[in-house]
Amino acid sequence: MKKYLLSILLVFALVTSMWSAVALEYSDIRGHWAEGSILESNFTGVFPENEDFSPDKHITRMEFCRMLHTALGINIAYFAAPDINEIFTDVQNDAPGAVELYNLVTTGIVTESDLFRPDDPLRRDEMIHYVISALNYKTDGNYAIIMMMPAPFEDDADITEAYKNDIIHAVLLKIVKGRGNNMLYPAAAATRAEAVTVIERLLTTIRNLARVDVYPEATVNDDFIEMKLTIENNTKDPVTINYNSGQHFDFQLFDAEGNSLYLWSEGKMFTMALTSTVINPGEKLEHTATLDGDAYAAIKDKIHSMKAYITGTSESFNVNPDGYEYLP
To answer: Is the pLDDT of residue 175 over 50?
Structure first.
């Protein structure tokens, strides 16, 4: 496991759109093709205040990452303060966007290491790669697209080889349309206006692919650990979970070697009856359990990871029988 992940005890990334409408007064966007998207976006803290938006200005790699982070509403809590230098040697911890960049690495949206080149202009094909990585993170890659190869761009040969599939997906999902005359200009620097538009389309796509989100969370204290499993229904239909007994969930703690330290259900009795739970659209179900006292004290220094389990099945979404893991 990479060194920078070893400092993370608990990670909770709840990704919901925070791309909210605000009244921005930019005199240089009136009549611009991206004016509507810019007016509907919130860039607080990303660009310097009291300056024009400069929609056709090249966006830097760090600026785009900060915009993407804000749009997705990523919120990650670390037990130990993250050190960006463990990943990128050319970004300082006190640099604007350092924490956001670290979060994007933690979520797997950004996968590079060593040098990030934060002030370099962002290539258009690289922007598309980050957007599709964000979509895969938000959806766990579980989305269907009609795999009909789109007509190639005239400058397909200029696309970075590693990003070609991402661009195909982006075109099929209508996140990317090119600049006209069937040209993508993949090596060209993306503009602020293009970045806003692509992120707006990403958020629209995420909403259209709304699904059931399952995520674990935990609160660690010197005297206890509180474990939580959240099941959130982001679809338009009720979600039903069926159980073979009165047990609806479980939690398990592991040491660094993968040995079980604690299982919440061990020694507990549950009714042997078929039960079910319905989660209505827009609602969520939370299961919690607390380990404290001598039992917690005996293992707290050994805890390396946690798994949360749904002990039922559903026709509405795929329940992972292997559990939902926190990787420290």
So the answer is: yes
Among residues 195, 231, 201, 235, the alpha carbon closest in space to that of 216 is found at 231
Is the pLDDT at 13 greater than 50, yes or no?
Answer: no
Q: How would DSSP label each residue in 177-208?
A: --SBTTB--TTSBPBHHHHHHHHHHHHHHHHH
CA–CA separation, 59 and 170 (whole Å) = 20
CA dihedral (101, 107, 113, 116) positive or negative: negative
Residue 327 has a pLDDT of 67
Hunting for tokens 């330290």 — which residue is that? 261
- CA–CA separation, 129 vs 159, rounded Å? 11
The residue among 6, 15, 14 whose CA lies nearest residue 80 is 6
| pTM (predicted TM-score) | 0.64
Residues near 323 by beta carbon (within 8 Å), at least 6 away in sequence: 250, 252, 307, 308, 309
Asked if the model's pLDDT at residue 15 lies above 80, the reply is: no
Task: Delimit the CATH 2.60.40.2360 region(s) of the chain.
Answer: 212-326
Q: Which two tokens stand for residue 168?
A: 């195909």
CB 210 within 8 A of CB 235: yes
Mean pLDDT across 241-267: 96
Strand-pair partners of 291: 225
Structure tokens at 104: 């994007």
Q: Which residue has the tokens 């200029």?
A: 158
The pLDDT, as a whole number, for residue 44 is 63
Nearest to 37 by CA among 54, 19, 56, 62: 19
CATH number of 212-326: 2.60.40.2360
